[in-house]
Amino acid sequence: MKALILASAVLLLAACGSDLHDWDAAQQAAIASLWIGNLGDPPPDPTNPVADDPRAAALGQRLFFDTRFSANGRVACATCHRPDRLFSDAAALGAGIGPTRRHTLSLVGAAWSPWLFWDGRADRLWNQALVPLEDPLEHGATRSQYVHLLARHYRQDYEALFGPLPPLDGIRFPERAGPLGDAQAAAAWRAMSEADRQAVNRAFANLGRSLAAYQRLLRPGPSRFDAYAAALAEGRTADLKTLLTPEEAAGLRLFIGRADCIHCHNGPLLTNNEFHNIGVAEAGGMADAGRGAGVRAVLDYEFNCLGEYSGAAAADCQELAFVKAEGGELQGAFRTPTLRNVADTAPYMHNGRFKTLGEVLAHYRDAPAAAAGKSELTPLDLSDADLAHLEAFLKTLSGPLAVEGRWLEAPPAAPGPDP
Amino acid sequence: MVTWQRAMGVMLAGILAGCGGEAPPAGSASVVHEVGGRKIVLDTSRTRASKNRLFTVTLDSGAEPIALNRIATWTVHVQDAQGRPVENAQIGVEGGMPEHDHGLPTAPRVTAELGGGDYRLEGIRFQMPGWWVVTLHITASDASDTVTFNLML
Questions:
Q1: CB distance from B122 to chain A under 8 Å?
Q2: Is B130's CB within 8 Å of A263's CB?
Q3: Tell me: the pLDDT tens digits for B97-126?
Q4: A127-136 pLDDT, tens per residue?
């Protein structure tokens, strides 16, 4: 009798083993929709004429790692967007000049998103880059300082791309001046002529365009999951079980099925780049309006796609022109992040609240109510084994970036005299 | 025997009517969709009569299938009950996912009248796969009516 039970169990397992890699047409389509082979190049950016200019990317890379571009000379973009951490940060909250209130988002794949930041308060890669530069808790300097730094250290490279810098004499163009600076810097900014302020703004925007050209190179590369998706699409069914373990395949089945992760984590970047309230608690009960505030900020942002420094036609700014600006679902909503390399980008969520994927998955299963706004989640009927399978699947989404290694480190110092 | 066959025929017709309403017009389409374990038939035709049959409306989404996460411009064609193009219509747009209690991720609008009963609908995007509805509120010559399209992404 025992032998019979054992034999049945083995048979059952064997049957399950083969079923795990057996997908119906709808499941095959879902898996194919996540395949990196369907990603393509980042969408063109008509607001950035140097978006795909390698000279701009090279300048952007040098700027990205340059700590001189900060109030204290110690903060670069790379301080928080660390290349060894997939351009994210191991700390729960980013910290430049001081501690910020949000976790550092990875920049990998950012070029595909119509919105930047957790709350989408910027709508282009280049205008996103300008915000931390002027944030007193991040780089903390003023836009006038940045233009003076460009002239001092990068004039030749800048002018080859964008034409002459403004005549920075220190009188018409004070060293420290900017609308978001301290009282002294703000007063100096107001004292400048409108034309001179615009000249500084144009150069400051171009600084962002160089940084964006660099960041457009930070592309995700194929993962083990992608090898599986390719094998499935090509009908190489015998290969499937060599590419994902039974646990990983079970996790994939949940991801596109019962757990419905694919609802928001869809497409080849496994994100819809939209805003959702998932009820992540804030530390100390602090409220964060998320997209509710971010949408107001991007509409008011002087460097946005419809602003005078974008150079775009209104038709190029559809996302901003037709943005959803009202509605309760914006409150406490944050942008869905990519799941590519998610196992290597802990901690998680807009405030870095969860240290492990296990904590994240438990949150989705429990679906706690939101403190601000209304959570979109409903509790999931998933076992501990299901969560373990999902976690195993998420770990198959890691792969080396599709970027030459020289872009992943601080560039060598430029040859020749750097005044 | 004949009676039995007739009974079956009546029953089948009844089931079909229950599923799809009256006989579908040529060019119509539908899908069976499961909502909470219950199967429903969704009319996914891109040409539909408005609720009170004042208008016949065609939604042209350009390339098919509709791409996820890509903002798009569509054309709406409005005819009256006699098949004449409707000019000077005011058209409001709303939509969402009935199963998930949320609206569209963008705020699409009709931005231009193109002539011949055609209108440009701009700024529409879908960020999730599944069943979506798009509802157009149409007012022309003091008559108002509403038409809803089912879209499966």
A1: yes
A2: yes
A3: 998 878 999 999 999 999 999 999 999 999
A4: 999 999 999 9
- What six digits make up the tokens of A181? 């600076």
Tracing tokens 């957790």 back to the chain, one arrives at: A118
3-state secondary structure of B48: strand
List the Cα angle A87/A92/A95 in 5-degree steps: 70
Look at residue B62 and tell me whether its pLDDT is greater than 60: yes
DSSP states along B126-142: --SSSEEEEEEEEEETT
- Shortest Cα distance from B138 to chain A (angstroms)? 20
Which helix (H) or strand (E) segment is B148 a member of? strand B143-152
- Which residue of A275, A319, A376 is in closest CB contact with B71? A319
3-state secondary structure of A385: helix
DSSP states along B51-90: TTSSEEEEEE-SSSSPPTT--EEEEEEEEETTSPBPPS-E
Counting one residue from A and one from B, how many pairs have CB atoms under 8 Å apart?
60
Structure tokens at A364: 């989705």
CA A127 – CA A319 distance, rounded (Å): 15
Q: What is the pLDDT of residue A371?
A: 85
Residue A272: partners with Cβ closer than 8 Å, 6 or more residues away = A264, A265, A266, A336, B68, B69, B105, B127, B128
**Which one-letter amino acid corresponds to residue B112?**
A
Overall pTM > 0.95: no
- The pLDDT of residue A345 is 96
pLDDT of residue B21: 37
Mutation for testing the A interface, residue in B31, B34, B71, B106 having most A CBs under 10 Å: B106
pLDDT of residue A11: 41
- Tokens matching residue A384: 């501990």
Question: Coil, strand or helix: which one is A212?
Answer: helix
The pLDDT tens digits for B7-57 are 433 333 333 333 333 444 555 788 888 887 889 999 999 999 999 999 999
User: How many residues does the structure list for chain B?
Assistant: 153
The ranges of chain A with pLDDT < 50 are: 1-2, 4-17, 415-419
Q: Residue A379 is encoded by which pair of tokens?
A: 């509790």
CB-based contact, A91 to chain B, within 8 Å: no
Give backbone dihedrals phi and psi of A404, rounded to 5 degrees, phi first: -60, 140
**Contact list, A267 vs chain B (CB under 8 Å):** 68-69
Q: Residue type at A182?
A: D
* A227, A230, A236, A237 alpha-carbon torsion, rounded to 10°: 80
Contact of A329 with chain B, judged by CB distance below 8 Å, is answered with: yes
The rounded distance, in Å, linking the Cα atoms of B45 and B127 is 21
- Tokens 């709508």: give the residue: A123
Q: Is the CB of B127 inside 8 Å of chain A's CB atoms?
A: yes
Q: Which of A30, A263, A322 sits opposite B71 (nearest CB)?
A: A322
Given CB atoms, is B35 within the 8 Å cutoff of chain A?
A: no
Q: Tell me the residue type at A55.
A: R
- Nearest by CB: A274 against B105, B107, B130: B105
Residue B99 CA to residue B103 CA, distance in Å, equals: 11
DSSP A311-374: ---GGGGHHHHTB----GGGTTBEEPPP-TTGGGS-SBSTT--BSSHHHHHHHHHH-PPPSSS-
